Structures are given as structure tokens and as C-alpha cells.
Amino acid sequence: MITTQTKLITDTWITIAWEDYLQLCDDSNYEKAKFYYYNEQGRIEMTPLGNDHSRDHSIITMLFIFTLHLKDFIKR
After folding, report:
1. Per-residue model confidence as pLDDT tens digits over 4-53
2. Would you put residue 73 in left (φ > 0), alpha (ψ -120 to 50) or beta?
3. Sign of the CA dihedral 39, 9, 11, 1?
4. Domain boundaries along the sequence of the chain
5. Cα 30 to Cα 28: distance, rounded to the nearest angstrom
6. Cβ atoms 53, 62 nearer than 8 A
7. Would you state the pLDDT for residue 14?
8. How far apart (Å, rounded) are the C-alpha atoms in residues 47 and 5?
9. CB neighbours (10 Å) of residue 75?
10. CB pairs under 8 A, 24+ apart, for 56-61?
11. SS in 3 state form for the chain?
């Protein structure tokens, strides 16, 4: 039995029993993770946090630059 109080290694294959793997899949701490199991090996991949956040910043930056170019165009 695996308790989630211990820090698990993510993004690498580890040897794990099927029952323990199923227990991890049901754990609320890993609800955004992707799980894989093959030949008594399990893998947990955590989704990156920054991807969507960086896209939001790029949209704001592009709108800001567009606004500056538009003001410059109107002045002419």
C-alpha cells in the first residue's frame, strides 16, 4: 500500500503493484496527472503549470503592441 504522504517520483517509470497503481489513480492530489501502466511499471506525468499562463501573457502583450501601432497609424 502506498501513502501519498511520501513524495512520489513523477515523470519516470517505477516498479509498482497494480493495486497500488489504482490507489494512486484515485488520489485527489493527482487529479490533473496522466497515469500509465505496463508490465508492472507505472508512470505519473504531472501537467506543467506555466503553459496556459504564458499564453495569456503573450495575448496581452500582442494586444498592447497592436494598440501602440494603431495609435501611431491614426496620428499619421
Report:
1. 556 677 889 999 999 999 998 998 888 888 999 999 999 999 876 655 55
2. alpha
3. positive
4. 1-45, 49-76
5. 5
6. no
7. 93
8. 20
9. 6
10. none
11. CCCCCCCCCCCCCEECCHHHHHHHHCCHHHCCCEEEEECCEEEEECCCCHHHHHHHHHHHHHHHHHHHHHHHHHHC
The dihedral region occupied by 39, where left means phi > 0, alpha psi between -120 and 50, and beta the remainder, is: left
Please, which residues bridge with residue 43 across strands? Answer: 36
Report how far residue 31's alpha carbon sits from residue 15's, in angstroms, rounded to the nearest whole number: 21
